[in-house]
Amino acid sequence: MIHLHSRRTGGARRARTGAAIAAAACLALAACGSGSGAAGGGGGGGDETVKITVLTDSSGKAAFFGTAIADSAKFTEKYINDKGGMDGKKVVIDVQDTTSAVGTASQQMAKAVSGDTDAVIFGVLTEEALAIAPLAQDAKLPMVNIQAGGDGVTEVGDYIWRITPQQALFYPKFAKYLAERKGTKSASVFYVTDNAPSVELATKVMPKAFADAGIKVLDKVASSSTETDLSGAVSKLMKGNPDHIQTQAIGAQNVTLITQLRRAGYKGTIGGGTSLGAGALTDLPADQSNGILYYSSFVGSPDLPWKAGSEFSVAYEKATGDQPNTFHAETFDAFNLIQEAVLKSGGSSREDIEKGMNEVASSGGLAAAQAEKLTFDERDAKGPGVVIEWQDGKETLAPGQ
């Protein structure tokens, strides 16, 4: 998936690639070498404000997810300010659409670096994150990533964080659930070749997790994320009549795949990862979508057994009329991490926020929407994850957990 999660190999090489792209963007803009560049514009939202720039894919191939991030950022800005702000300081956000393009994201980060932004929240594409993280690191501008789960992102430096637990952590629990609760014995997987985390999950993480759970993987079927006619892929996936078909597609392509599988007569279970949790299933009729299973770090239910998650779910739905999904929760937690950093450090400069985030991590983690406690390993969030079942147009906590 675009952003999603893979194991950490080749991180330094990818980080160097990102740094090269970022450097090119700086030269083109003449921003990183200007007076406020590498030293960081200012962390200067002012003594009475905390200015946060939100860079997200509100259009382009990742718009499914980026729109949710933008919506949640606006909700969270008001939510925090209504409760008195961050340590009494008003939160001011600036939401920018990266258009799912590395060049656009680089331009926007260069502007944030040279301005008075105190912190950046970014989501969701790994390729964008790798390009812009070196800019933030050089400027000592805290950057909290949502998703962006490929190799090398947090390895860029000590100002770069990720609020989303790696999907690889969730797969063993998900595979065990399929085997024990659904009696799954065989499965095939669909994935996209033009997204490195999707490839990693489908070809390495998933096969091991399924094998450990006693599930035989019959086939792994690849496509590009732009392909709309998936009839050939559907035929391959259904060969051997697997009990379960797993999708590691991106956004709306998941809907296309599910629709074509059901029209072709597939009766088994269908599952996926976090990308199914951004409203991707809402337009499908109930006979196609009910019972779809996927893993994530959050489900928008007041029945969540941890306080911060259930409170966020209730507050978001009351304010917007919509059930929150994983991307809403991750955005809320990104702001929460910055807020806790301000409280712990006693300041809201870039350096204060970086210091405070380290204090959050070293003191046991963050009470979050995604988990009773999100812990951090080298600035990378860790959490337990949940299995979600889609029923009647809503996410539900799959029974038996």
List the defining traits of the structure above.
401 residues; 18% strand; seven-stranded mixed sheet; 41% helix; alpha/beta; globular; five-stranded parallel sheet
Task: Describe the protein in words.
The protein has 401 residues and is α/β, with parallel strands linked by helices. Helices cover 41% and strands 18% of the residues. Strand 9, helix 9 and strand 10 (293-296) form a beta-alpha-beta unit. The protein is globular.
Q: What does this entry show, briefly?
A:
This protein is an alpha/beta fold and 401 residues long. 41% of the residues lie in helices and 18% in strands.
SSE layout and pairing:
Blueprint: H1 11-29, E1 49-56, H2 63-82, E2 90-97, H3 102-114, E3 119-123, H4 126-138, E4 143-145, E5 160-162, H5 171-181, E6 186-192, H6 196-212, E7 216-223, H7 231-238, E8 244-248, H8 252-263, E9 269-272, H9 286-289, E10 293-296, H10 307-320, H11 326-345, H12 350-362, E11 375-377, E12 380-382, E13 386-391, E14 394-397
Parallel strand pairs: 1-2, 1-3, 3-4, 4-5, 6-7, 6-8, 8-9, 9-10
Antiparallel strand pairs: 10-13, 11-12, 13-14
Helix pairs in contact: 1-3, 1-4, 2-11, 3-4, 5-6, 11-12
Spatial strand order of the main sheet: 7-6-8-9-10-13-14
Q: Give the helix proportion (percent range).
A: 40-55%
| Structural Rg | 20 Å
Q: Which regions contain 5 or more consecutive residues with pLDDT less than 50? A: 1-41
